[in-house]
């Protein structure tokens, strides 16, 4: 049985890493973008941003002043035994978020949607958010991800129902138009990690898009060649527009494009976009049934992607 004291500390350390350290795949994407960038200003902007993120890790400071919504993804073995069960796991996650907020790794940005009441600890109705996936085994993999306010509120997430007659071209046009509009409005901070959900109901497509943006390894490809081609086509199209870092021009407007899908109703195709920030705040940790703790390089939410 995995003890409460152990998984609560792992939850806290995972939140801390997600708030202060970039993942290796994001670092690699930045390095490649710097190498291929032809604009000197954009190259300098990318380099300085990467240096700033490295400094955040050394000083254990937040990567960005916006530390985003606290979101947890739990990949749980069917035979996993947690002291206190899943109710206590969620309580421990709330305590970890409150502790991270108190220590300054998170800013207190979660408020009541109508009154503006601020509890000061990022804990409230349906926050943090919890998503579960059950798999074979007896361990648990904990992933923490945080979407920033800009990438979520002001155009970073959009959805539409596309007619079957419009097909892939209709899907791609909606995605490209959405990203251009949000970048033009200054609603997102390119270069972004763009997640796309195709199929299901509107909320299913939106959830898939967010998971694709937050949990897919940057640079990975969908195993289905049709969806991989959509990823490649949109990636090339967006990077050909010259939006560049923070919209100031350059060769890299997106670090990656990740598509996930669900079967859909014959009436139409729900399509959603979720634009993640360039720092892609996330961290993952595995706890085995014997108490062994392993820091994961990737959330592995979609298998090896």
| Helix/strand/pairing category | alpha+beta
Count of helix runs: 8
Distance between the termini: 29 Å
Q: What sequence of helices (H) and strands (E) makes up the elements?
A: HHHEHEEHEHEHHEEEE
Shape by Cα distribution: globular
Strand content: 15-25%
CA-atom Rg in angstroms: 19 Å
Low-confidence stretches: none
Strand order of the largest sheet: 2-1-3-8-9
Number of strands: 9
Please estimate the helix content: 25-40%
Assembly status: single chain
Largest sheet: 5 strands, mixed
Overall average residue pLDDT: 96
Summarize the helices and strands and which ones pair or pack.
Blueprint: H1 4-20, H2 24-36, H3 40-59, E1 71-77, H4 85-102, E2 129-135, E3 140-145, H5 149-153, E4 157-162, H6 167-184, E5 192-198, H7 202-215, H8 225-239, E6 254-261, E7 269-276, E8 282-287, E9 293-296
Parallel strand pairs: 1-2, 5-6
Antiparallel strand pairs: 1-3, 3-8, 4-7, 5-7, 8-9
Structure description:
It is a single chain. The chain has 305 residues and is α+β, with helices and mostly antiparallel strands. Helices cover 39% and strands 19% of the residues. It contains eight helices and nine strands. The model has no long low-confidence stretch (mean pLDDT 96).
């Amino acid at each position: 049985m995995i003890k409460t004291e152990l998984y609560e500390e792992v939850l806290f350390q995972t939140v801390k890493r997600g708030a202060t350290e970039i993942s290796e795949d994001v670092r690699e994407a930045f390095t490649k973008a710097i190498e291929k960038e032809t604009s000197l200003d954009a190259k300098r902007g990318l380099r300085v941003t990467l240096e700033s993120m490295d400094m955040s890790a050394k000083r254990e400071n937040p990567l960005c002043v916006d530390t985003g919504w606290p979101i947890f993804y739990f990949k749980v073995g069917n035979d996993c035994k947690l002291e206190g069960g899943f109710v206590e796991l969620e309580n421990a996650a709330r305590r970890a978020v409150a502790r991270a907020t108190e220590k300054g790794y998170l800013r207190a940005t979660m408020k009541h949607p109508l009154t503006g009441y601020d509890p000061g600890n990022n804990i409230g109705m349906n926050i943090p958010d919890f998503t579960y996936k059950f798999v074979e085994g007896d361990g648990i993999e904990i992933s923490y991800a945080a979407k920033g306010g800009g990438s979520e509120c002001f155009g970073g997430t959009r959805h539409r129902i596309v007619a079957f007659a419009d097909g892939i071209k209709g899907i791609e046009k909606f995605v490209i138009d959405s990203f251009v509009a949000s970048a033009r409005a200054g609603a997102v901070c390119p270069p972004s990690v763009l997640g796309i959900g195709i199929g299901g109901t509107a909320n299913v497509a939106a959830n898939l898009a967010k998971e694709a943006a937050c949990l897919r390894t940057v640079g990975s490809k969908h195993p289905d060649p049709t969806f991989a081609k959509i990823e490649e086509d949109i990636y090339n199209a967006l990077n050909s527009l010259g939006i560049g870092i923070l919209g100031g021009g350059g060769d890299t407007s997106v670090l990656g494009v990740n598509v996930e899908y669900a079967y859909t109703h014959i009436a139409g195709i729900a399509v959603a976009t979720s634009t993640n920030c360039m720092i892609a705040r996330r961290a993952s940790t595995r706890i085995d049934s014997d108490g062994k703790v392993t820091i994961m390089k990737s959330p592995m939410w979609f298998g090896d992607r």
